[in-house]
Specification:
Elements (H helix, E strand, L loop, with lengths): L1 H25 L8 H8 L11 E4 L5 E5 L4 E2 L9 H11 L11 H14 L9 H9 L7 H17 L2 H11 L6 E2 L1 H9 L8 H8 L14 H17 L5 H9 L14 H19 L1 H7 L3 H21 L2 E4 L3 H14 L6 E8 L4 E5 L25 H13 L6 E3 L5 E2 L5 E2 L11 E3 H6 L3 H11 L1 H8 L27 H8 L7 E2 L5 E5 L5 E3 L6 E2 L3 H17 L12 E7 L5 E8 L2 E8 L7 H4 L3 H10 L1
Parallel strand pairs: 1-5, 3-4
Antiparallel strand pairs: 1-2, 5-13, 6-7, 6-18, 8-11, 9-10, 12-15, 13-14, 16-17, 17-18
Helix pairs in contact: 1-4, 3-9, 3-10, 5-6, 5-7, 8-9, 9-10, 10-11, 13-14, 15-23, 16-18, 16-19, 16-21
Keywords: Carboxypeptidase, Cell membrane, Cell shape, Cell wall biogenesis/degradation, Glycosyltransferase, Hydrolase, Membrane, Multifunctional enzyme, Peptidoglycan synthesis, Protease, Transferase
GO molecular function, one term: glycosyltransferase activity
Pfam families: Transgly, Transpeptidase
């Protein structure tokens, strides 16, 4: 036993002597590569970055989504870290922190003596700098080889960073169990409050965890954590960081956990914002231009992968995505859809835009929506039916031919030869023939044959030059047929696309795409991204005034009377696709443009509920 202890002591003394000699001598030796160069080849000490949670907020600044995967960390700068926390860690982990150069010879010697008695490695004598190095660059293996590397890296780190920088990095890297890293995330997770509001007792309680995160897990082993907390407080008293009175008070203060789950509200809207963030970065960083110029699918795929990686890097850095979400309107839309569409096999989506501010304030993805599932508000494309008529037929008609509002149009049957040589012979609903009718009558009752005649007069390609300004993503030259007057597109449009297009009627004929993201900022508040305001003149004020009158009449005495609301202005257009597969209504008031779609995912008829007009009732509830 005596020989064994003596051997351990000798090994320890040799280890200390060798390490100190290596550290001091390398500072003097001028070789082709210094120790710093060698270490730098393995790890870039000048570029240390830690992941941090990203946050999504609503229009009021309230967090609606915390974005992180395995590492829950909210990074704090040094001046944001509570002094109580810094004092607790220095008192318990490294009382000579401000005196040493990365390693503490006295602590190491003490640890070696203790290890010799135990005939194993029980104590490490590590400084906070060494622990930081271990967390950042090394393994946690209890070997002398790792220990020597730790000392060397710590010495170099102290030459590169100030003591304040090291404390900042250390307190943001330490592990607090349950996937939580850093004091701020720990405070929010275990006590549901920011670390600046921690009491002395709570700060000491949390500071007890990193010594052995599983052993001192505050949830599973709170009794052990409390015992360790008392030891932390004792060390703080001995180091004069707290007074006797503060110490006694902290010992008696009760610790009540208030474990907070990850904030992840409004999944419909949040899912959309994740996509809009990708679109925003693509536009501002030039990825969209590269995608348009890509000549092969393989090249396009590589660009898309690069874009996705860039966005993920941003989210890992810790950004704040400020949105225009109106939580009241979002919740109301979801409740209204459930109330008006109780059938389990029927779905619905609603999009609400504040066209005065060009902001998307609500978007639903479907009933019982789960985050990142198919979002019917922006990922579903369906035939718009007659809801396309104001955009593709009537407004271009007024604009191109300067037709008076009081003009008439033939509403009898019609057959017109398409440019592909085939005859197109649409009917009005129910096969009715109405002779010559005013334009207002044709639109408010949604007659089909007048719309086809008008599109033919304007010219299909000419009419589509207006629709192209709205950037409907799945509308292309293959849709340039007379059937498009009735919403007969190959792929269709999404609710958000159609709703955005209708905002033009609220903006004197100008189109300004409405977005959900107001701006994206870095941790320090620097604005990283925001949408550049784009204004496209689609048609004249005169045409727009005529269209507003027509749309108002649709609600006054046409197909949308059930959607009437008490407002200075309201107008809109219904759309019902063949066999009642889709029900649409897009309408506007003085402040909002709102679109509603109701249908089945299976593209089958919902004729059995069409008489209840759920799309109109949902719109009405939202616009009240």
């Amino acid at each position: 036993m005596l020989k064994s202890s003596t051997g351990w002591i000798l090994i320890g003394l040799i280890f200390i002597a060798f390490t100190f000699l290596l550290v001091e001598v390398t500072a003097e030796v001028k070789e082709v590569k210094t120790l710093s160069d060698v270490l730098q080849d393995h790890v870039d000490l000048n570029d240390i970055s830690l992941s941090s949670n990203s946050f999504m907020t609503d229009r009021n600044g309230d967090v609606i989504s915390e974005i992180y995967r395995d590492t829950n960390r909210v990074y704090l700068n040094y001046d944001e870290i509570p002094a109580l926390v810094i004092d607790a860690f220095i008192a318990t982990e490294d009382q000579r922190f401000f005196e040493h150069k990365g390693y503490d010879a006295i602590a190491i010697a003490r640890a070696i003596m203790a290890n010799a008695k135990q005939e194993g490695i029980e104590e490490g004598g590590s400084t906070m700098t060494q622990q930081l190095v271990r967390n950042l660059f090394l393994s946690h293996d209890q070997t002398y080889n790792r220990k020597m590397s730790e000392i060397l890296y710590a010495h170099e780190l102290e030459k590169t960073y100030s003591k304040q920088d090291i404390i900042e990095l250390y307190i943001n890297t330490v592990y607090f169990s349950n996937g939580v890293y850093g004091i701020e995330a720990a405070s929010r997770y275990y006590f549901n409050k920011p670390s600046e509001r921690l009491t002395l007792a709570e700060a000491a309680f949390l500071s007890a965890v990193p010594n052995n995160p599983s052993h001192y897990d505050p949830i599973m082993n709170s009794d052990r954590t409390k015992l360790r907390q008392e030891w932390v407080l004792k060390k703080m008293l001995e180091a004069s960081y707290v007074t006797e009175d503060q110490y006694e008070q902290a010992l008696t203060d009760s610790i009540t956990l208030n474990v907070r789950t990850k904030v992840d509200n409004h999944p419909d809207y949040v899912t959309y914002i994740h996509q809009e963030l990708i679109d925003l970065v693509a536009e501002r960083e030039g990825y969209d231009l590269k995608l348009r110029q890509a000549e092969t699918d393989e090249a396009k795929q590589k660009i898309e992968q690069s874009l996705q990686q860039h966005v993920q890097q941003l989210l890992v850095q810790g950004i704040q995505i400020e949105t225009a979400l109106d939580p009241f309107m979002q919740s109301l839309a979801i409740k209204s859809i459930h109330r008006q569409v109780p059938q389990s096999d029927v779905q619905a989506a609603a999009v609400v835009i504040d066209h005065q501010n060009h902001e998307l304030i609500a978007l639903t993805g479907g009933k019982e929506y789960k985050k990142f599932d198919l979002n019917r508000g922006y990922q579903m494309y369906r035939q718009p039916a007659s809801a396309i008529k104001p955009l593709l037929v009537y407004a271009p008609y007024f604009e191109e031919l300067n037709i008076p509002l009081q003009s008439t149009i033939n509403a009898d049957r019609v057959c017109i030869k398409e440019k592909n040589g085939k005859e197109y012979c649409p009917n009005n609903y129910g096969g009715g023939q109405y002779g010559m009718v005013p334009l207002m009558t044709a639109l408010k009752h949604s007659y089909n044959t007048p719309a086809v005649r008008i599109l033919d007069r304007v010219g299909v390609d000419t009419a589509f030059t207006y629709l192209d300004k709205f950037s409907f993503s799945k509308v292309d030259s293959g849709d340039h047929l007379l059937a498009s007057a009735l919403g007969g597109f190959t792929h269709g449009v999404s609710p958000i696309e159609l709703t955005r297009a209708y905002t033009t009627f609220a903006q004197n004929g100008s189109y300004r795409p409405a977005y959900g993201i107001r701006q994206v900022t870095a941790k320090d508040g620097t604005i990283l991204y925001s949408w550049e305001e784009k204004k496209v003149e689609v048609w004249s004020n005169t045409t727009n005034d005529k269209m507003r009158k027509l749309l108002a009449e649709v609600m006054e005495s046409g197909t949308a009377t059930r959607a009437q609301v008490s407002a200075p202005y309201s107008g809109g257009k219904t759309g019902t696709s063949s066999d009642y597969i889709d029900l649409w209504f897009v309408g506007l008031t003085d402040q909002y443009t709102t679109g509603v779609w109701v249908g089945k995912d299976t593209w089958s008829s919902i004729a059995h509920i069409s008489s209840k007009a759920p799309h109109l009732e949902i719109w009405k509830e939202l616009m009240k």
